[in-house]
Structure formats: C-alpha cells, structure tokens
Amino acid sequence: MSCKRHGVRVARLRPMPGLPARVVACVMVSLLATLCMSMNNPDQALYAFLGGDLLVPSQYGGRPSIVALLAWFSPLAAFCFLFSDLVPSGLERDASAVIPRVASRTAWMLGRLAQLALYSASFALLGRLASAFGLLALGCGVDPSELFGVALGDAVLGFALALLLVLATNCLALRVDAVVAFSVVFAVHVATLVGVRYMPYGVSRAVAPWLPSTQGILAWHDCSGWTTGLANGVPGFSIAVSLAYLLVGAVIVAWLAIRLVRSCDVL
After folding, report:
1. How far is the CA of 243 from the CAs of 157, 158, 162, 222, 237, in angstroms?
2. Buried b (16+ CB within 10 A) or exposed e, 191-200
3. pTM, 2 dp
4. C-alpha dihedral over 75, 77, 83, 89, to 10 degrees?
5. Measuring CA to CA, which residue among 251, 239, 206, 250 is closest to residue 52?
6. Tens digit of pLDDT for each residue in 102-153?
7. Is the dihedral of CA 30, 41, 191, 124 positive or negative?
8. Are the C-beta atoms of residues 127 and 30 closer than 8 Å to each other?
9. Average confidence score pLDDT of the chain
C-alpha cells in the first residue's frame, strides 16, 4: 500500500498484536516503571513520578537522574510507538472497501480517530490506576483520597496528551515511515519537557503554560487547592485550561489527518 501526495510513500510497520493487547502492554509498562521508581520511597514516587514533579524544576535546585527520566517517558513512548501505524496500516487493510469514495474515507478516518481516543483514554486511566494500586501495595502512606486524586488528575491530562501525540504520529506516518514519524514526534516531546526542566527557574515558569507538552504534566499546574505534595507548579496554571488546550490541538491534528486521508491515492 502507498498513500501518495507529491510522490511520497507511506510504509507500514510489521504486523503487531491486537489493539487491546497493545493497551495492556502499555499499562504493564506504566506499572513496572512506577514500581521500579518507588521501591525506596513510594510516598515520594507518588508526586515525583506519578504526578510528574521530577520534570518541574524547584527553586532549591536538584535534578532527576537519567534512569528516572527514561522510566518516566517509557509508558508514553510505548503507547505512541505501538499505535503509530494504526492509520497507515488500516489504509492498506481496508483500501478496497472504504477508500474509493471520499465520503467513505472521511467516515473511515472518523472511526480510526474514535479508536485512538478510546485507547488513549484506556491507557491513561488504567495505567495511572494500576500505578496507584502498586504504590499502595508498596506501603505508600499518603491518604488514599489524595493518592487516587493525583492518579486521576494525571490520567485526565495524560489522556489528552497521549491523544495529541498519537494523532500527530499517525498524521506524519501518512507521509513517512511510521517508525520515523514516532521518532520525530516523540523526540520533540522529550526535548521540550527536558529542555524546560533544565531552564533557569524563572524562565521555565514563564514558558511552561504555553507549550503543548507541559500542558500534560500534572505537577506543572497549580494544585494548591487539593494537595501540598505538588508545590512546584505555576500559580494559576489551570488543569481545565490545559485540558481544553490539548483537546483543541487534537481536533486540529485530527482535521489535518482527515484531509490527508481524503487526498490519498491508494495503490
């Protein structure tokens, strides 16, 4: 299969397990990463790892280890990689049935977008809940209401961020190989978060509310009304605003993906 516009070909990844199995695999990566980072101090891991505080600079200094950063990024990286070929491989599989008519292409793409939204939500929610229960099993002493509050707050933002990234990856995969598309999109995401993390304290707080990647990190937000464990966020940085920001971005990328699919020549 090829999807051509201006002579560019889209390649397909090797066949992979069914979509629910991919979600389960990503949830297991989330759980294992959280458990590995919380062996010594599950209370600290709740905020630093599950809440994402290791990506937010403190005015008192201190930097996360490379191992902690790799562990934190690994669940989302697994999700974006495993779902990076959903649209390109689907075009190849369904080309003869749904692609000949433009109306069919739009309906087909809307179905794929619904799938990506469903699996993004499943990954975000189940991954955070599994991690929260894992912290409880390791003896986390934080009040359960606050523990699950952090997990659910991070899941809401994590869903929107995962959806935006996986949509961007699939959109780019309509022009280049899916592995390349994943590498480009996720490299930009990692570079943004790590770059902001290592900026001077004041500068990082000035730019964080404007960048897509930081919108998906709970610890960057103002959580003073319901937890004292995430105290390094930007005052007034609202979770609701970030959620709207990410969802609008996802809608824009989805619109672009529909246009690309409608313009494809499938061979």
Report:
1. 6, 9, 12, 14, 11
2. ebbeebbeee
3. 0.89
4. -150
5. 239
6. 557 788 889 899 999 999 999 999 999 999 999 999 999 899 999 999 999 9
7. positive
8. yes
9. 87
